[in-house]
Structure formats: C-alpha cells, structure tokens
Design brief:
This protein is of the alpha/beta class. It is 34% helix and 21% strand. Helix 3 links the parallel strand 3 and strand 4.
Amino acid sequence: MSALVINLTHSSDDVDRTSVAMVVAGAAVASAQTTTVFLSSEGVHLAKAGVAQTLHEEGFAPLGDLVSSFVEAGGEFLVCSPCAKKRGIGEDDLIDGAKIVGGATLVALLADGAASLSF
C-alpha cells in the first residue's frame, strides 16, 4: 500500500483550495492509499470541531461531508503543533481523526517514502 501526505495550508481563508485538497484526499483513501492530511498555517482551523460544517464551495460537496467521509474511510489529520498553538487550538478542540504533532512526525512519513502534495 502506498502512502500519501497532503499538506493543506488553508481552510476558511480559501474554501475552493481546501475543497480540492479534501476531494483528492478522499479519492486517495478510497483507493486504498494510506492518506494523511497535514494541516499547517491557516489549515489547522479545519481540524477544529464545527469549522468544516460551516464551509461549502459551490460545485463541491460541503466540507463537513468531505472531512467526515475522509476520516470514516481511515484518513488521518495531523495538525502542526506550533500552528495550532499560535491560533489557540488544543487537543480538546479537535475533531475525531485529528491529532496535534510536531514537525518530526511529518518528516518521518516523508522519510519512509510517502508521496506529498501541497495545497
């Protein structure tokens, strides 16, 4: 099984880009790829409970649905620790399927051969 890391740096600040990233993530996990979405910068807001349900870009499924489907299919969100801290987001604020990690976790995934995409 292949591994894919999607680095997502946006959420409510660019719902179009966020939607595209989550469609790709959903397709990857549905294709039996080990798929991780690494949320950094403004992307960390997507892992905060309730945020995805408020976002919907015309032409895409609502982000709440895309996020839920991704997690239910076995996808995982990793949330950049300093990015979350800067924005006042802690473990208790996160959706199921998300956890706050340091950069070493991302580096380890990439060093183990995961392909990566950035949005």
